[in-house]
Design brief:
Layout: H1 4-11, H2 15-27, H3 29-37, H4 54-73, H5 79-100, H6 107-112, H7 114-117, E1 122-124, E2 127-133, H8 139-142, H9 151-156, E3 162-167, H10 176-193, E4 201-206, H11 211-214, H12 222-228, E5 231-236, H13 240-247, H14 262-269, E6 276-282
Parallel strand pairs: 3-4
Antiparallel strand pairs: 1-2, 2-3, 4-6, 5-6
């Protein structure tokens, strides 16, 4: 197990956030350790840690990362991947501080970090990856006609097939070369970490893949180039994820900021072009320069 000093150095918190965590750990070390023992007890994502105060959530999460380090190492992963993965905690703590003006994590952050607690998410280069089972968000699978998928597609990649789920962190560098290197590296890492599993495809459910939006982007757009890596197998008009990521709120309250990005302008002027999509990259195809 690594030391807390080494962990905090690798997490690269801002000084203000790191100092608050250190003070909490020093002042309430026994309480933090006790809370950590049952932090992720609970059902339906109603974890015990969610009921704690924001700073306590962050301090406990940081404490838990110490033990998770050895579990990630047991997968044969290098420190770079482990600490890049753990820095999602730093990123979300930074975003929480910018939004709330205080040190901590939200309940949603705690729920998201169940993936780290389960050694089930990995930051490899530009993207995060998660061992997953294919799921079609349609009426046959979830009892709701959220999306529609062809029967041919569902036969080619049946529900439950092992896939690698892709996640895009806020601020991720989607330069095409970085993305291709990230995908290629993920193939190698997952074959080492999960040798018993033959993953069939990369899967991505995201607003960044929605064709009506990407069609409005220039050819050299990193988002467009990222989306073009995937075969889009279904779409829907659910724009909640997009508006939350672009503006932090629903479209009825959005005012275009004076320093708006090009993508924010596209969404603001073309709200009908904003939605949600599902894309895949089959492992059997020649996908990457490095593979």
């Amino acid at each position: 197990m690594i030391s807390m000093d080494i962990l905090l150095g690798e997490l690269q918190f801002s000084k203000e956030i790191e100092n608050a965590i250190r003070q909490k750990l020093n002042k309430d070390s026994k309480q933090v350790s006790i809370i950590a023992e049952t932090a992720y007890d609970g059902e339906d994502f109603d974890f015990a840690l969610c009921k704690r105060m924001p700073l306590t959530r962050l301090a406990v999460l940081t404490q838990l990362l110490l033990s998770k380090y050895d579990e990630y190492r047991s997968k044969g992963l290098p420190n770079k991947i482990i600490f890049d993965t753990f820095r999602d905690v730093s990123l979300r703590a930074k975003l929480y501080f910018e939004d709330k003006g205080k040190v901590g994590l939200s309940k949603d952050d705690v729920i998201w970090f169940r993936h780290i607690m389960n050694i089930a998410i990995f930051k490899i280069g530009a993207l995060q990856f998660q061992p997953f089972e294919m799921i079609y968000l349609d009426e046959a699978t979830i009892g709701e006609a959220y999306m529609v998928f062809s029967e041919k597609q569902k036969c080619l990649l049946p529900n439950g097939s092992p896939v690698i789920n892709c996640h895009i962190q806020k601020g991720a560098n989607l330069d095409l070369l970085f993305v291709e290197d990230s995908l290629a590296s993920a193939v190698s890492v997952f074959s080492m970490a999960f040798p018993e599993t033959s993953f069939r495809a990369f899967l991505c459910y995201s607003w960044l893949l929605f064709p009506p939006m990407t069609e409005l982007l220039p050819q050299d757009s990193k988002i467009k180039q990222f989306a073009n890596k995937f075969t889009i197998i279904s779409t829907c008009n659910d724009s909640e994820q997009a508006w939350t990521n672009l503006f932090g709120q629903n479209p009825s309250k959005v005012i275009l900021p004076p320093n708006a990005s090009f993508l924010q302008e596209v969404a603001f002027k073309n709200p009908e072009a904003i939605g949600f999509a599902c894309g895949i990259i089959e492992m059997s195809k020649t996908l990457f320069n490095a593979v």
